[in-house]
Specification:
elongated; binds protoporphyrin IX containing FE; disordered N terminus; 9 helices
Length: 250
């Protein structure tokens, strides 16, 4: 019965794990780009002049909660993408099943832990308590993870394209690895572009709206748009490369 469900149109059986990983991989794409458009729209509404402090606070709460989805999806994409490539024979071919399990589960656990810590960190951010051991450790660990993702995906992608075996066996996947590194860099660029948001928002809420305060706040939100749109484009191209690979090319 189950075997029938997992048959491809050409009749070849599909590895159940491969199918499950592909579904999760695509669901993460949805949780990332799909929900991020909601974040973008909320930010757009938040920039309007003349909103009450309550409305701005409520919109910001919605924005922060929605923004968890792309943040968590980008973290979980790492173990899922690695295991999808491995299970499909498209990457890490020199690695044994036992080694892959030893890599996969700790990364999943780490990413889930960081996702939980993100929610706690948001509470610290909202109350301005960023000088605690927890907040400093979280920021440090997240930065280490981002640097790790950026360097490892970029280096393995370039090495695979240069002909190094056992990393990514397919040029589409090698390019995806490079783009994923660029996506991680774009994420950092967003943090940089958004750096004046909290001070400008605090000023607007605490001291009331004036044209100058609103102008500063508007600029703070718009500062994130160029990297955000760049990231959307990169994620879209990465998804297209995945589909091209799954269908044997363009
Ligand atoms: C923003 C990040 C990513 C997005 C949005 C994304 C999206 C997708 C999509 C939509 C597919 C096509 C699924 C199908 O039609 O069957 C796919 C396939 C795939 N992706 Fe990703 N992907 C991302 C990152 C990665 C990374 C970093 C890797 C590994 C380096 C990776 C490895 C794969 C593999 C191995 C496949 C299957 C290709 C095949 O069967 O030939 N993906 N991806």
């Amino acid at each position: 019965m189950l075997a029938n469900v997992f048959l491809q149109s050409n009749g070849a059986p599909v590895h159940e794990a491969l199918l499950a990983l592909t579904i999760v991989h695509v669901m993460l794409f949805l949780a990332w780009l799909g929900v991020d458009t909601g974040v973008f729209y909320t930010s757009w509404r938040l920039r309007r002049a003349g909103l009450s402090a309550e409305t701005r606070l409520e919109l910001t709460r919605i924005l922060v909660v929605l923004d968890r989805s792309p943040r968590m999806a980008s973290l979980l994409m790492v173990p899922i993408a690695l295991s999808l490539a491995f299970t499909g024979g498209l990457g890490l071919t020199g690695v044994s099943d036992a080694q892959m399990n030893a890599i996969f589960w700790p990364i999943v656990a780490l990413m889930l832990l960081v996702s939980w810590a993100l929610v706690r960190f948001e509470r610290a951010q909202a109350t301005g308590r960023l000088d605690t051991l927890f907040a400093r450790t979280y920021t440090w660990v997240l930065n280490v993870i981002k640097v790790g993702i950026f360097t490892s995906f970029l280096a393995t992608g370039i090495a695979a394209l240069a002909g190094v075996d056992g990393l990514w066996n397919n040029d589409y996947i090698a390019w995806k690895a490079i783009l994923f590194a660029c996506i991680t860099a774009a994420g950092q660029w967003i943090e940089h572009g958004f750096r004046d948001f909290a001070p400008a928002f605090g000023d607007l809420i605490a001291n009331g709206e004036t044209p100058e305060r609103h102008e500063r706040f508007d600029r703070a939100v718009k500062g994130a748009y160029p990297p955000v749109l760049t990231l959307y484009a990169l994620v879209t191209v990465t998804a297209i490369l995945g589909m091209a690979s799954a269908r044997g090319g363009f």
